[in-house]
Amino acid sequence: MDELIPLSQATLHQLPETVRRPAYDRASLSPGIVHIGLGNFHRAHQAWYLHRLMNEGLAQDWAIIGAGIRPNDAAMRAKLLGQDCLTTLIELGPDRISAEIVGAMIDFVAVEAGNAALIACMAQPAIRIVSLTVTEGGYFIDSATKAFDRCHPDIVHDAAHPDTPRTAFGAIVAALRLRRARGLRPFTCMSCDNLQSNGAILRQAVVTLARLSDPELADWIAAECSFPNAMVDCIVPATGPDEIALAQGFGIRDAAPVTHEAFRQWVIEDKFCAGRPDWARVGVQFTQDVHGYEAQKLRILNAGHQVIGNVAEIMGIGTVAQAMSHPQINALFRKVQRTEIVPQVVPVPGMTPAQYVDLIAQRFANPAIHDTIRRVAFDGSSRHPGFVLPSLRDALASGTPIEGLALAQAFWARMCAGTREDGSTIAPNDPQWSMLTQVAHQARSRPAAWLEQTQIYGDLGAQSVFRDSFTRWLQLIWAQGSGAALRAYTGI
């Protein structure tokens, strides 16, 4: 191979002709969006849609400034600033691979204690949207009550020290305080995380936190800010040596390339208090009711990851595609979806829930996407309550089957014991891993212990239909293994 070309603005013209690159003058771009939590998904999704608009000569004043609030975000900042905030996007289709350089991001604010640089940036008049991907577990939600957790130490700190916050929400509140004091209009706050009613949840976090320190500011935010709900969809694996090697295969030295599938979807409520790019021109769907799209995606795709991810981890299967090639896991996915989840999901225009299951099964099975089981099984303490348990609650209320959903919970409990069936260790994979592991070991002899985690299950553990089914499955898994449980449920 010829010498690799380090990715930068100065070297774009040296890249192979097979690699698409920005058709716009990046030097003429000006910022309009701050994005907090700038990881792979944002760069393959929101930034890509904006990049497409810019390639048409539009949205030149909506460029993205990246931001992060965690210490390890500084590493991403260094990587991206080192290549002029450019990203190599590598699309992994079942039969072809292509690469494109995305240039919609132009800067990354300093990552620092107190978040002064981030607050100052968001307070600038040019910033009209602040968007976030801080993960499902990053919104300080009590899993059982769905209320904002005012007692979390970081929230207590931000309420007492509003000018030097620790959280993204505290930084947003501080920036909005500055804008109000300067006579500026607020920006739109836009969540791009996988949460039902993510805009409403973001609004809850920002307004509630503001009210703890400045009730008048909270009233102003509630009246003047907008928090659109949105559904985002694209499978984007984590970046590791294999992904870096794929970029090198195109002759590019990129410290943080992103691989992704060919499918993308973005559905947003059209509620933007300070304007927005013309995203509809490049395929974004705008609606005043995003709930149906959210429910279909979260309950089928995201819950589907949990249904197959935990058992695949127990069995030592490495990727989602490999799990879907396992006959019993594939059958588990399809049976749980069609008989237990689909009955609780309403159709959306152009797509029935059953059709969506087939689409997701096809996407999960794409062998070119090396989406790890470890990634999709991460943070089950947020993802099971957010993605799986709503269908379980609805099924119990309607009297429809719940055996597969109960089995999925049993597989999760078994996974959290921390060992695979071959005896190897499962590395900690949840912010609550120590607690989950302790309870998982208790549940081996007393399954009800797992369901007594009311912060996860609320009152579900008191419902005998679910409790009895969960107990049978967990006892079978520990006694005879996951294969026996899969055979009992799927019949194969």
How is the secondary structure organized here?
Elements: E1 5-6, E2 19-20, E3 31-36, H1 40-44, H2 46-55, E4 63-67, H3 73-81, E5 87-92, E6 97-102, E7 105-108, H4 116-122, E8 129-132, H5 153-160, H6 168-181, E9 188-191, H7 198-213, H8 215-224, E10 230-233, H9 241-249, E11 252-253, E12 258-260, E13 265-269, E14 285-287, H10 291-315, H11 320-324, H12 327-341, H13 353-364, H14 373-376, H15 380-398, H16 403-415, H17 433-445, H18 448-451, H19 454-457, H20 464-480, H21 482-490
Helix pairs in contact: 4-6, 5-7, 6-7, 7-8, 10-12, 10-13, 10-15, 10-16, 12-21, 15-16, 16-20, 20-21
GO molecular function: oxidoreductase activity, acting on the CH-OH group of donors, NAD or NADP as acceptor
Organism: Roseinatronobacter thiooxidans
Protein name: Mannitol 2-dehydrogenase
Give descriptors for this structure.
single chain; alpha/beta; N-(1-d-carboxylethyl)-l-norvaline Dehydrogenase, domain 2; 5-stranded parallel beta sheet; 21 helices; 11% strand; globular; oxidoreductase activity, acting on the CH-OH group of donors, NAD or NADP as acceptor
Q: Which stretches are low in confidence, meaning pLDDT under 50 for 5 or more residues running?
A: none
Strand order of the largest sheet: 7-4-3-8-9
State the CATH architecture of the largest domain: 3-Layer(aba) Sandwich
**CATH domain class of the largest domain:** Alpha Beta
Q: Which percent range fits the helix content? A: 40-55%
By secondary-structure content and strand pairing, the structural class works out as: alpha/beta
**Counted beta strands:** 14
Tally of individual helices: 21
Sheet-strand content, in percent, reads: 5-15%
Largest sheet, described in full? 5 strands, parallel
Query: What is the general shape?
Result: globular
Number of domains: 2
Q: By CATH's scheme, which homologous superfamily of the largest domain applies?
A: NAD(P)-binding Rossmann-like Domain
CATH topology of the largest domain: Rossmann fold
The overall pLDDT average reads 96
- Whole-number radius of gyration? 23 Å
- Termini distance? 47 Å
InterPro entries: 6-PGluconate_DH-like_C_sf (IPR008927), 6PGD_dom2 (IPR013328), Mannitol_DH (IPR000669), Mannitol_DH/Oxidoreductase (IPR050988), Mannitol_DH_C (IPR013118), Mannitol_DH_N (IPR013131), NAD(P)-bd_dom_sf (IPR036291)
Domain Mannitol dehydrogenase N-terminal: 32-280
Pfam family, one: Mannitol_dh
Domain Mannitol dehydrogenase C-terminal: 289-477
